[in-house]
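[Q] Does anyone have a clean C-alpha cell version of this?
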Amino acid sequence: MRLIWSFVGLAALGLGVARAEEKERPLMRDFMGLNGHTVQFKPDLYAPIARVIRDYHPLHWDLGKDTSFPTTFPSARNKVDWSTVYGSWVKAGLHVDASLMFDDFAPGDWKDISRDAAVYGEAFARAFGPSSRALVESAEIGNEPGKYSDAEYRQLFEAMAGGLRKGDPRMRIATCAANLGPSGRYSKSVDCLAGLESLYDIVNIHIYAEIEGWPTWRRGAPEDPRTKFMEHLRSVLTWRVEHAPSKELWLTEFGWDASTKGPPPTGDFAKWEGSTEAQQAEWIVRAWLIAARLGLDRAYLYFFNDSDDAHVHGSSGLTRNFVPKPAYYAAAWLQSSLGDYRFRRVLREDAAEGYVYEFVDGSEPKRRALVAWRVSGTDAPGVLPISANGITRVERMPQSKNPAEAIEVKAEGDGAVRLPIGESPTILWVNDG
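[A] Here you go.
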C-alpha cells in the first residue's frame, strides 16, 4: 500500500506477452476492481465504478490481541457484524475479495502460529465462503507482510491456506503482495512459496507508476518508460507463464494521488509531488486499459476515498470526503462504456502517434470498440484504420458529471477516419453488422 513494487532480474519479455494474448480476456466489468475498507466503504456510491471490491480485513478486529481467540463469526470481536458489512456489498451487486491483514500481530505475538492461523482460516472460509453465506469469494493471506521473515510468512501462509481450503474448498486463495527476486519491505518473494502451489489460486502484486521515490515520490503516466509500469507487468506475466501458468495474476494496488493542497512545509513529505486531478483521471483509465491489454486477470485501483492529505496515498481516492473527483466520473464512464467488452488486440502503441486498442463485445463479436489516446501533449488530429460506415458513437472520457463529449470523425480515404486525439481516451463504437 505504501511504495512501488520492485523487481530484480527482469526476464525476457516476449514469451509472456505472446502467450498471455492467447488466453481469452475477462470482460472489463469483471476486470476493473476497487480497494475499499470495511465499514467506511459505501457500496452504492462505488457500484458504478467496479463490481469486484477488495477489502482490507484486519484480523485483530476478529481476534483482539489473542491469536487463539475462538472467532464469533459473523460478528468480529470488536462487534462489527461482517454479515451486515459484506452483505450490503453483495446486495449492491459487488463481489468481495478479503485481504486478511495480520500486520498488528508481530510474529512472536502468535500463541501458536501454525495452529492459530489454520483455525482462523477455516473459521473465516466456513463462515463467509461461497458454500455458506456467499459473502466473500476470495481471500488474500496478508497484504504487505514485510515484517515477517520469509520462513515465518511461509509457515503462516501454509497454515492459513490449509484452513481456508478445509473451511470452504470453493473459496479462492491469493498470495500477499508478491515480487520477483528477494523479498522487500512491502512484498514477499514468489520463491518463498515454492512447493505450495496447490494452496493458492492467485498471485497478487502491487505496482505504482513511480518515477522517483523519496523525497518526492513523483509518479508518472503508466506508459512512461521511466515508471517501468508496463515493464514490471510484462516481467511478472512472463514469470507466470513459465512458473505458474494455471494461476491468475491480480494487480491489487495501483493508483495516483491528487490533492488540492501543497505539501507540508517540513517533515517527510515536504518535497512530495502529487498529480493533477486531470492526470489522476486520465492515468487511472489508461492503466486499466493497459493492464487489460497485457493480460492480467484483474486490476484493483487504490483507493476509494481520501481526505485530501498531501502525502503518499493521502489523496488517492476516487472521491474526496465521499464527493466524486474527476477520476470518479472517468472510471464510471469506462465501466459503463466497456463493461460488456473484453480486450482483443493492439492496433497501435506509439509514444508519438498514440495508442489504439480494440475491444469486442462479449456476447456479440460484431460490436467492437476502439479506444484511442495520446501519451502526452495537446489534442491533435489522428488517423485510425477503420471505416466510418460502421461507427455508431464516439465519446471522449469525461471528468465531471456532465455527459461525455461527442467527438466528430471524418472519413479519411478508404477505410480510415480522422479525429482529434488527446490524453483523455476516446472510444469509437463500431457495429460490423
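[Q] Thanks! Anything notable?
[A] The first strand starts at residue 32 and ends at 36.
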